[in-house]
Specification:
Chain lengths: 327, 316, 267
């Protein structure tokens, strides 16, 4: 299958109080045509920065240290403004967490969806037809009514669906969604999630889903990358990883999540807290200080990237005898 | 069972300057017993945060009575009001906005002691240090400003502030919702152990079903300003009776079936009758015009639904 | 504290006003000449060793007059700002903290006050009380009052619902505790800023009013008085107008710079 997105050995540093600190550390990631892939991790792991890098929206105080990001086989790191104007909306689209600030409160939502394509040349009439088709696809029942409404008249879930329409107006090959459901209620979250999945697969648009909720993304994504402190510690099929995580971080994270089945027992919480970007050391495995199974080597040497079947993970505990081959 | 906090037919509305009235809570009836962890679960707009503010007396209700240890909290004055503020504490959701950034950790945790005239300066410092130990905060943070602390640590400070005055009821308003998963577990463990140690009663407000399943003894489900179901935790998860609760449990547990309802409601639509009737699969005409009362359908299990009431009558 | 001194605007402003303040301070103990002593022979004399800033149209020493005049302007500034602050702050606090009816009533009062142009106010006062230091003081206080009230009100409105304020309330903190401990510290820079700007405005207003003859009366010197006297002689004896103008500019600019500095520091 063709790869619409391929990130190779990408590193990004941020300027923090005058010092350059690596926020994203040699990551490899790919998304195939029509595929839904998740990038999960807690705050500070670099997942949002990675997403912004793909769309060319990294903050000014950042610097690319290495690697390339291939979007439809073209390296976006070498793009200039006019390249981005051509590509955004057309090849790559992005949806963010807070739907209210992404919509202009002064204009009717239908108009805002239309606008998303007239920039690139569709006639007004055709744009309207397409906008309404998309609205139907995302599940609006009373399209004419909603078309004429203003953002503040809609609920969070509805606004997010409008943003999905805007993002998909020009049938991009890749849709990046950065925590699009975090600000929504639990039930609406699910609906928006399924909508995104359905609509994008019907248009053969690939989906890169950024989230902190491994459980949630596993409902719509096939593969997942787990990030911690700027590195991808594990990747593979969602269901595999949920059932049997290979990396201690993923394992500890999943077992520390509360549920009714754990009632009465103390939650096996990961000790300590995520160190800030300023205090990060680039020596050894990033998770070693908090890992229950850490060995002396973990603090000194970066664990190698190894592969076993569809799984990839980076941990000194994964031995070649058990089928983990360096890659 | 001792009743700690009770709501009796409580209603509350917001009135803005132009006279527009928005009903936030309607006819709330619930009792919280001493020593239990009572959870309130609902989505945004359900009124659960307002209920937290009413319980801590930050707001006063329009009708009905709220009693704490059998005293009407709205009628309290003077010494008994001060005693109320000592006994009922609240921990907010956002660890970033709930701490005054111009004050050191020490003076933040010390404040409740000063307000209630506990001890002298020396004694207070000792109490602050002891409390910090209790919640797992290193003493190196004593004279530091909150800006230097992460969300998880700040929330520990918020808990310390709430507990230093030795309350009997603690209201936790989405207190773990803003935390990262790995930190959430730490704070939940802390809350559970402190409850046992200090004999606390918790009113736990959240939208997160997993957290509620783990920590709560009894759960009340809220929808659009009303309570639709109350039951012990396991009972609610195994046997949800109200259709809204059913949808909630299905959405929360990882089911492959897409039992999700189309909740495309528009904000201002407020009709008569059961608020869920427009979306409920078994809504009848009666549901659309009358509001069902909260009735005990099974032992300890309350539901507000006409259909359930009917089937109970049939089975009697 | 050190933060303040690192800010360029603040430091520069402080230097400017210090120059003017020290001039008037020295004037408390030593004056080269009697500021009101007329010496027709020295009429409009330029800068010289005996008269460092020259003489005015009545032969009076400009430097001495400035030393006394600046003292009058500065004290008017200080007193009017202090009074505006003392009256305006509680008004703004009540309006901002309580809101509702109190807010409406108080703001109507403040708005009424604001709608009067300063000159009109001064004119009315002068008509009733006659031109003097007191009538100037009252006029300037009334002009500066609304600004304090508005700023304090704004600060209270935006801070009263902060979560940490609610948190204190929920623990039984009294209203005064909340105001002193949790709201005022957060708006203190805004208040300082307002004081700074109001001072500058007061000095300017005084100059303007005295220039029009509504304030400080001759022979008492003040910036406005001297500017008024000097304007007829701009071409013949520019030194007469330059010195008071320069000092006035230094003072006003200085306060504005301090205000800018404070705002920058806050961000």
């Amino acid at each position: 299958m063709k790869k619409v997105l391929e990130i190779k050995n990408y590193s990004l540093a941020l300027n923090v109080n005058g010092l350059l600190k690596q926020a994203v550390n040699n990551i490899d990631l790919y998304v195939e045509e029509g595929e839904a892939v998740a990038l999960v991790g807690e705050s500070g792991c670099g997942k949002s920065l990675t997403a912004l890098s793909i769309a060319g929206l990294t903050p000014k105080k950042s610097q690319v240290l290495s690697g390339e990001i291939l979007l439809n086989q073209e390296n976006v790191l070498s793009y200039h403004d006019q390249d981005w104007r051509r590509v955004r909306g057309n090849e790559v689209s992005m949806i963010f967490q807070e739907p209210m600030t992404a919509l202009d409160p002064l204009y009717k939502v239908g108009l805002q969806i239309e606008e998303a394509s007239t920039i690139h040349g569709l006639s007004r009439k055709k744009a309207r037809v397409r906008a309404q088709q998309l609205m139907e696809k995302v599940g609006f029942n009373d399209i004419d009514k909603v078309y004429k409404m203003y953002p503040h008249q809609l609920s969070g879930g509805m606004r997010q669906r409008i943003l999905i329409c805007i993002a998909l107006m020009e049938s991009p090959t890749m849709l990046i969604a950065d925590e699009p459901t975090t600000a929504l209620d639990a039930m609406v979250q699910r609906q928006v999630l399924y909508t995104m999945k359905d609509v994008s697969s019907s248009m053969n648009t690939s989906l890169l889903f950024i989230s902190h909720d491994l459980d949630l993304v596993s409902q719509v994504c096939r593969r997942v990358y787990v990030m911690y402190q700027g590195k991808i510690v594990e990747s593979g099929l969602c269901h595999d990883i949920l059932v049997e995580p290979s990396h201690p971080y993923t394992r500890d994270l999943l077992s520390s999540m509360p549920s009714i089945h754990k009632r009465g027992k103390e939650l096996p919480a990961i000790k300590g807290s995520v160190p800030s970007l300023e205090s990060r050391k680039n020596k050894g495995c990033p998770f070693a200080p908090r890992c229950k199974q850490a060995m002396p080597i973990c603090l000194e040497i970066n664990p190698p990237n190894t592969q076993k079947g569809t799984r990839k993970a980076s941990c000194h505990l994964l031995k070649e005898e058990n089928g983990w081959i360096p890659c | 069972m001792d009743t700690m906090l009770a709501f009796n037919d409580v209603s509350f509305s917001y009135k803005n300057n132009r006279g527009r009235v928005k009903k936030v809570l309607q006819n709330i009836n619930l009792t919280i017993n001493k020593g239990e962890t009572f959870a309130l679960i609902g989505e945004s707009g359900s009124g659960k945060s307002t209920l937290a503010e009413l319980s801590s007396r930050l707001l006063l209700c329009d009708s009905g009575t709220i009693t704490f240890e059998n005293q009407n909290i709205q009628k309290l004055k003077g010494a008994s009001l001060k005693a109320f503020y000592k006994n009922v504490q609240i921990v907010f959701q956002d660890p970033y906005s709930s701490l005054d950034e111009k004050k050191t950790i020490c003076s933040l945790i010390e404040e409740p002691l000063i307000i209630h005239h506990v001890g002298n300066k020396k004694e207070r410092l000792e109490m602050v240090k002891a409390m910090m130990d209790e919640v797992g905060l290193s003493q190196m943070y004593l004279h530091v400003l909150p800006t230097k602390l992460s969300g998880g640590l700040r929330q520990r400070v918020a808990i310390a502030i709430a507990l230093i005055i030795k309350p009997s009821l603690v209201i936790l308003d989405e207190s773990v919702s803003a935390l990262d998963v790995s930190i959430q577990a730490q704070v939940l463990n802390l809350l559970v152990s402190l409850q046992k140690k200090l004999n606390l009663t918790y009113l736990f407000i959240t939208h997160d079903l997993q957290v509620v399943g783990y920590i709560a003894d009894r759960i009340a489900v809220m929808y659009r300003g009303r309570i639709v179901e109350i039951a012990p935790t396991r009972e609610l998860f195994d046997n949800p009776l109200h259709y809204y609760t059913r949808n909630l449990i299905a959405a929360g547990t990882n089911n492959d079936q897409k039992e999700a309802q189309n909740t495309f409601f528009i904000e201002d639509k407020e009709g008569e009758g059961c608020a869920f009737s427009t979306l409920c699969q078994r809504a009848t005409e009666r549901c659309k015009s009358e509001v069902p009362e909260l009735v005990e359908i099974q032992q300890d299990h309350f539901v507000s639904c006409f259909t359930m009431l009917e089937s109970k009558k049939l089975h009697q | 504290m050190s933060v303040y001194f690192k800010n360029k605007s603040f430091v520069l402003g402080l230097i400017f006003i210090s120059l003017v303040f020290s001039l008037s301070f020295v004037g408390l103990f030593y004056l080269p000449y009697d500021p009101n002593q007329i010496d027709i022979a020295a009429k409009l004399q330029g800068v010289s060793r005996s008269h460092l800033l020259g003489c005015d149209n009545l032969g009076r020493d400009i430097l001495s007059r400035l030393m006394v005049g600046s003292r009058i302007s500065i004290s008017l500034g200080f007193l009017s700002v202090a009074l505006s602050f003392l009256i305006g702050t509680p008004l703004g606090a009540i309006a901002g903290y309580k809101g509702g009816k109190s807010d409406e009533v108080l703001m109507k009062f403040i708005d009424t006050l604001m709608s009067f142009p300063g000159i009109l106010l001064a004119l009315m006062l002068v008509a009733v009380l006659g031109p003097s230091f007191t009538s100037m003081l009252i006029a300037l206080t009334l002009m500066g009052l609304p600004r304090f009230a508005r700023v304090v009100r704004g600060g209270f409105l935006s801070n009263r619902n902060k979560t940490y304020v609610l948190s204190s309330k929920a623990r039984g903190a009294s209203t005064s505790r909340i105001i002193w401990n949790h709201i005022l510290p957060h708006i203190s820079i805004d208040i300082l800023n307002t004081a700074s700007i109001t001072f500058a405005t007061s000095v300017m207003s005084e100059a303007g009013l005295s220039y029009l003859g509504l304030g400080i009366q001759p022979p008492n010197p003040s910036f406005g008085q001297m500017l008024s006297g000097a304007q007829s002689y701009i071409l013949i004896a520019p030194h007469y107008i330059v010195s008071p103008a320069l000092l006035l500019i230094l003072l006003v600019l200085g306060f504005n710079l301090i205000g800018d500095g404070l705002r920058e520091i806050q961000q």
